[in-house]
Amino acid sequence: MEFLSQNMQVIVASLVVLALLLVVMLTWRAVSPRMAGRRGQRLGISEYHEIDKSRRLVLVRRDNVEHLILIGGAHDLVIEQSITPAAIAAAYTPSPISPDPSSFRPAPRAPSFSDRHQSGASPPQRRSADAMQQTTSREEP
Question: How many other C-beta atoms lie within 10 A of the C-beta of residue 25?
Fold first, then answer.
């Protein structure tokens, strides 16, 4: 308690100075014109990409319209202008494609045993394991 009573004048004086600074700062903000506020900001850089040490591709947004600009080097160049959100959405929306049935052809299928038999070719002769043993035993002297 002794500390407060000894330093009461210093504490009150510092609080008065802080209050005056706060009033001056609020008055300054109310009177001064806004140069670049976040609310209602019309101009901004959406994206940028460094191409090399001196050149950059910059996507600048102004009033919901974007412009692609190449800066640096000998000249600055506007690559694409008036890019709107509607144009971006239209560029990425796939167009409906209706399949044309005449453009399709049936998938090829492998020939089966029944297909060869129907076409008139004689089916290959299959020999059983016993018949093969008999023919090999006859060939041996």
Answer: 10
β-strand pairing of 77-83 with 43-50: unpaired
Structure tokens at 71: 């800066």
Q: Which amino acid is at 59?
A: L
pLDDT in tens, 8-51: 899 999 999 999 999 999 998 888 876 655 566 788 888 989 99
Report if pTM > 0.85.
Answer: no
